[in-house]
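quick one before i forget lol
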Amino acid sequence: MVLIEEVEPEEEKEIKVDVWDGAAVRNALEDATKQFFNDRSDFSEDFSLYDTKLVICTVACLFSLFAIVYDYFIAPFPKSWTVLLVCAVSYYIMAGIYTLFTTFVEKNCFYVGKQKRTGGIGKPSKWRVHSSLPRLSDVFTLTMSFTDGETHDCTKTELSKSISCWFDSKGVLHKGIFFEDLNKMWKEIEKSITKKKQ
């Protein structure tokens, strides 16, 4: 893997990771992507995906908690057998729902942002960003999608590059270079939206 050696002037605290740790690299790039969007004045992050996952997990934990309390304080085993069975089955159903949600709804999405419409009138548009960095690979894939708040038209673009394009040999993330690539993706989507409107 060839790594860039140039060092940028330090404007803010640099992000430094172990380039051989895929999870750390992916987290650093995802955090930088979130910053790219959240630094824009017309953007606000939408936490509905995270909130839904928290609700599912909370309900699953409540089933477990109820089973423990019922068995310990109300009707010790074997009297609590039916309640324990229902709670255990319910817990695994919630775990299954969580798995289905992360697989088919979330789909590696780490950022959902709402963009206000010009003038602040009308439903905000949504930007979703997905990422993947396969195990033992240096190729990071970023998928950016835009959904119009009024027409619900969806426009997507994808970027696949080696992490060596953004990290130097010391593991420092060069945000300027990464943000340039994000800007290119942004402009690609804007061009596609303009073509659709013509």
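fyi Confidence is low (pLDDT under 50) at residues 1-10.
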